[in-house]
Every structure is written in C-alpha cells, then in structure tokens.
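Morning, I've got a small favour to ask if you have a moment. I've dropped the whole record in just underneath, so have a look.
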Amino acid sequence: MKPFVIFLALIVALLTSTSMFTVRENEYAVLFQFGAIQRVDYAPGLHFKLPFVQNVVKFERRLLTVDSEPERYLTSERKDVIVDFYAKWRIADVAKFYGAFQGDEALARQRLLQIVREPLRQAFQQRKLQEVVSGRGDLIAQVVKASDTAAQGLGIAVVDVRMIRIDLPDEVSESVFRRMRAERQQVANDLRALGQEASETIRSDADRQRQVLLAEAQRDSSKVRGDGDARAAALYANAFSGDAEFYAFYRSLEAYRESFRNKDGVMVLDKDSEFFQYFGDGARR
C-alpha cells in the first residue's frame, strides 16, 4: 500500500508541476494546444495549463536592438555615403509575431533590417549630403515612422532608429581630405604672409624710432659737449687772463705728466727748448 501512495504522490506532483507556469514583467507568454495558439494575454504572475496537452512559449517584452553592417547609400546629388545604423524595436502583438516568424527572433531581426533599410534609402535619396548631416533629426523621424508602419503587420513596433556614423567612401574621403589640406595650407600661407608683413612693418618702425632716438641723443650729446667745451674754454680764459704765468706753469706740468708717463720713453730735445723752461735753476719767471 505504501509504494502505491508514494507513486500516486509522485504522479500528483508531476501533474502539478507541469500544469503551473509563471510569467514575469519582462515576458510575453503564449499558450499553445496541439500547436495552435489558445491565449496570449497573460498578466505577470502564476498561471495554470493542462499538462501534456498545452505548452507555453515565452517571448521578450523589453526593447530589443538590431544592428546593421555599414552600407552604401546614395544622396539626391548622387554622392555615396557609408551609413552604420541600429534600430530599437519590441514585440507589439505576440500572436502576429509568432505567426510571421514562428517565434524565431533571429529571423525577425533579418526582416526588420530589410524594413528599415528601404525608408532609410529613400530618405537619403531625397536629401543632399549637407541636409542629411544638418537635418538628421527629421530624417530619423521619417525613417522611424515608415519602418513602424511597415512592421505593424508582423507584430513589431519600431521605436527608434539611430545612425552611428555617416562616412564618405574611402576614395571620396581621400580626395576630400586632400582638398581640405590644400585649403588649410593656403590659409596657413596667407596667415604667414600677413605675419611676415606685420613683422617687417614693426621692424622698420622700430629701426626708424631707433634712428630718431640715436639722432636726438647725438644732438643732445653734441649740445651738452659743446656747452661743456664752451664753459671749459671760458674757465681757461678766465684763469689765463687772471694769472697767465700760473696758467702756463700748470699747462707745462700737465705736459710733463703726459710726456713722462712711460718711464721707458726717450725724448730728444734741445736743452734750451721752451718745453724745459720750468726745469733747472734757469727757469724763467
């Protein structure tokens, strides 16, 4: 009897465990019976199903992301650009989503990329490159609206599309960079020329001011030297007129001092020369 009770308890536990399932806040739950959808509107919490007859498949309720490889698009001015984008999406109608993709999320991502690429290509073809860069917000809004409309029949809601980068092709980028470098080089040369011109102007102005200052200093120096010489001459004249003999004696002493400064020097003069008038006992009075 006891083994039968244990077996019955195991059967009841198995039936109970297979008849209950939980749904989280970030999940959709779809109830199937023999492969057909029976219910999709489960709220978060604990729910029940028929064991072995019904099964539950869960799907992501949160936002999902699909990334695109960089692709080439053509603007209205026939310029190629390389665009790298990603899209944010979610399952809006789980029954339609399952019917369209059999619950295969990878298949849904591939289809969604095709849906987003078409309005994105049309948006680029309607705009010039400058308009694409400056009006990115309007372009994104147009792409999101068109993509969401196209994806509604698949149970998908396109929430957002973002362009990670917009680049020119390598061959175009190189020519653009070369032109930009040439333009920057021309600007740099113009600035250098202006700087050189300003430098020459400043240098010539400084040289002119230097010449003026030197001329003024030379003039003032000559004036001061002339005034000094005149004053010295006046002093000498006054001294000479006051005592001519003393002045002559003083000037002779200065001449002796300068002449005999070098002790090795030799002078050959007549002993009666006027230069020696203040030497010896016969010095003139």
User: Anything to note?
Assistant: The chain has a mean pLDDT of 82. Residues 196 and 202 are 10 Å apart (CA to CA).
